[in-house]
Specification:
The chain is α/β, with parallel strands linked by helices and 524 residues long. It has 23 helices and 10 strands.
């Protein structure tokens, strides 16, 4: 629909025009009224209607003077005159100031409909022209963001200045805000044609919003689900905090999307607009720590220290909680660690690397001999990477890790119901705990009250390997951990893991790892 502003010094006629003409049937709504030109000026400035219907003869400021002012201030606003005098001089004056037409008093409803049909056509032409200009501006701004060559940037800025109808490009400067879709807000991944269609409409909805609130903003789509919003800086007020909030609400209401906004405080001339991008990009990345659906303003977000070293994660304690099926402890240990990460503002790539390593080891544990009663295909590393890097917030990352841990716990509980699996698990736990001591099949079978031959059989059936192979694997894993300590000699490590013969330990290590213990240590 198009908005119309009515101006007439005859209050009765003004009320009749507002209340008795069926504007809605013509695709028009009354945005406001004024009783003379002076009264109308301030209201028109605030409303900026598509159409102004004004009487010609009025006190203080007549319709022709008002029309001249509107034409100078708002190029796209269409003007229609009301006059009680069917005189050519008025008609000529009306057409001279760019009026689309005129209506004679008393008003004829059929004539109004015909004139408004022409007016709406003009309004549509204005909207299409405006949209075309905005698209061109958006293209120029995108090029300015990525153009490294100074001379080329100056030419692009000059083209932008022509679109702004400025004699000098230097007269204009802009601020930059980023709008990014929160892909996983609300707990579900954004996927499917419905969401794709919503994201594709995001630039259009943002443009219409800024047009509705009368803000001179250019919206450029940078990548799927991310917009750059360039707002002209100057004497007029910029986009307010409340208006940014309303933009979020509008996007959620019309498209069902949650977005995070990063609003930069600096401004730059078009040829230097690229220097605003990195600060805005850094600001939008704060979503990782503060969560989705926020409006982040420069200077209002705690930047933190950006430590390059992770705090120690109590992985051994976490693994013991997993082994002992203590789900609440598993969740609590992870939550406390990530709360520390959030407090320290650890660099996101470092956190992702830690998460991938942790999930990789957890996946290996899922398919370890002690849990492999019903083998599952391991998760591909590429899919693991994707699941981590898709996390936009620390909370999403915590959820992803906790989901994997829960799956592990469920499998352990499910498989522990199998008697033989439970016995094998018990044997694995004994080996895990006493690997450094002399272990024989007889000592193990006596602890679980089974014959040695039966224990050998069910262990191979459930794990796919012999007890000796499993013991060797555990001992060598412990050896690799100890090799990280340069103060420990190879012979000391051999004894600590249960081998009295250093040469036998070295031969086993080479057979399984392909390198000697000392070579492995050098590569750590």
């Amino acid at each position: 629909m198009y908005s119309i502003f009515l101006v007439d010094d005859e209050e009765l006629e003004l009320e009749m025009m507002r209340d008795f003409i069926r504007w809605e049937d013509m695709g028009i709504y009354v945005a406001g009224v004024g009783i003379n030109g002076k009264d109308a000026q301030e209201k028109i400035h605030a409303i900026q209607p598509d159409i102004v219907l004004t009487d010609v003869q009025m006190p203080l400021m007549n319709g022709l003077e008002l029309a001249n002012w509107v034409s100078e201030q708002y190029e796209g606003t269409q003007i229609v005159f009301l006059t009680g005098h069917d005189e050519f001089s008025y008609v000529k004056s009306a057409l001279h100031v760019g009026a689309v037409g005129y209506l004679l008093k008393p008003l004829d409803l059929e004539e109004i409909s015909v004139v408004m049909g022409r007016v709406k056509q003009k309004c549509e032409e204005v909207r299409l022209k405006y949209k075309s200009i905005q698209m061109t501006k958006a293209k120029l701004f995108k090029e300015l963001l990525h153009e490294p060559e100074a001379t080329r940037r100056e030419r692009l800025a000059a083209e932008l200045g022509k679109l702004e109808r400025r004699e000098e490009v230097a007269a204009g400067s802009y601020t930059l805000a980023l709008c990014s879709v929160d892909r996983n807000a609300g707990g579900g991944d954004l996927a499917g044609p419905t969401v794709e269609a919503a994201i594709s409409r995001l630039p259009e909805v943002a443009e219409e919003y800024f047009r509705a609130v009368r803000k001179d903003a250019v919206v450029a789509a940078l990548q799927e689900g991310e917009l750059a919003i360039f707002s002209e800086a100057g004497d007029l007020p910029g986009v307010t905090r409340e208006q940014w909030g309303m933009l979020q609400q509008t996007i959620r209401g019309l498209l069902g999307l949650s977005v995070t906004l990063a609003v930069g405080g600096e401004e730059a001339k078009p040829e230097h607009i690229a220097r605003l991008y990195e600060p805005s990009r850094a600001l939008i990345e704060e979503r990782f720590f503060v969560g989705p659906g926020r409006i982040l303003f420069t200077g209002e977000v705690k930047s933190g220290y950006r430590y390059d070293t992770l705090p120690p994660f109590p992985e051994q304690e976490w693994r013991e909680a997993l082994q002992q099926l203590r789900g609440e402890d598993v969740e609590g240990i992870l939550r406390e660690f990530l709360a520390n990460v959030r407090q320290l503002r650890i660099n996101k790539p470092l956190v992702f690397e830690w998460a991938i390593d942790l999930l990789t080891r957890l996946e290996e544990q899922l398919h370890s001999p002690g849990l492999n009663g019903h083998a599952e295909p391991p998760v591909k590393r590429a899919a693991l990477y994707q699941s981590v890097y898709d996390c936009q917030t620390l909370q999403e990352l915590e959820t992803a890790i906790q989901r994997a841990a829960t799956h592990y716990l469920e499998l352990r509980m499910e498989r522990s119901t199998d008697k033989n699996a439970k016995l094998v698990q018990q044997v694995c736990q004994i080996i895990d705990r006493t690997y450094h001591e002399p272990i024989t099949i007889q000592s193990l079978s006596s602890q679980v009250y089974l014959s040695p031959n039966y224990l050998r059989s069910i262990f191979r059936d459930k794990t796919g390997m012999t007890i000796h192979d499993y013991l060797t694997r555990i001992r060598l894993e412990k050896a690799k951990e100890m090799l990280a300590d340069p103060s420990l000699k190879v012979q000391d490590i051999a004894q600590k893991i249960g081998y009295e013969s250093t040469s036998y330990f070295i031969s086993l290590f080479v057979k399984n790892q392909g390198v000697t213990p000392n070579e492995y240590r050098k590569n750590l």
